[in-house]
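User: I'm putting together notes for a lab meeting next week and I want to include a structural view of one of the chains we've been expressing. I don't have a solved structure, so I'd like a prediction I can at least talk through. The sequence is below, exactly as it appears in our construct file.
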Amino acid sequence: MLIIISYKKTGLRPAALNRWSVSCPTHRCCASYNCNLLYLQVFNFEVVSHFSYMIKSKHKKWIVVLELSSQEIDAILLSIKVSIWSVVFSLLPAVYIAYVLSRKKFWGRQALNVIVHIPLILPPVVTGYFLLLLFNRTGIIGRFLDTYFGVTVAFHWFGAVLAAAIMSFPLMVRAIRLGFESVDPKLEVAAYSLGANKFMIFLTITLPLIIPALITGAVLGFAKSIGEFGATITFVSNIPGQTQTIPSAIFEFLQIPDNNFMTLRLVCLSLLISIGALYISEVLASRLSRREQNE
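Assistant: Thanks for the context. Below is the predicted structure for the 295-residue chain, given as structure tokens.
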């Protein structure tokens, strides 16, 4: 498996690939043309050895070629899948909890706030242990799911989604809550006085104003899920190809002597994924802000 990483605009056409200073046996497949953003291209090739090298064209642009093992590719793809699903499952509950904490006044509000932020306070291993007690086949919730639905969460990739969602949930709630608190309540009161119901006020006034906060919360949740380790390895173990994420794979590679190159390779790729997610969120948030100012 080859991953080609290029940065900035290369403007290379297929015919220009022959002018590279270092030859690449697959160069006719990995040209980048008019690309202005950092991107990844993945090609299916047999892995012969582990190496990386840089190719520099006469256009003074750098292209990095990494050859990854199937275990590394599985860990990367699983980490991305787990992070995406954890954001999907957490976003709506995070919006609701953030709205309640920022808009409602009720007895037990501070207790709810403490409960939401407990995963940030507890060690991740403790959170994973509690999940294991609840969701294993003999646990209260796990036995119910296994008996009536035939669903096993522990030691399954969906368990990694659950662990990542719980660990990232406080960060998402915090970011979205700040968005709600930044909305002027007078706008909602004015809309209510004109006859709009609460649902329409939320849908047409409040929600558009907190979209940057939603993006920030989703990206924070994604980045936290990418890096989640303690709760995940405690709850779903470290099974290659099934529950092994990038942090778990890095932990396994660290146990192998003289294996720093594979570890460093995954560290760089995880950093690249996180930076890419943050960059996309900043671009989307800035575009939304400019559109609101123009309107």
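A couple of points you could mention at the meeting. Residues 1-62 have pLDDT under 50 and may be disordered. The longest helix spans residues 260-294.

User: Perfect, that's what I needed.
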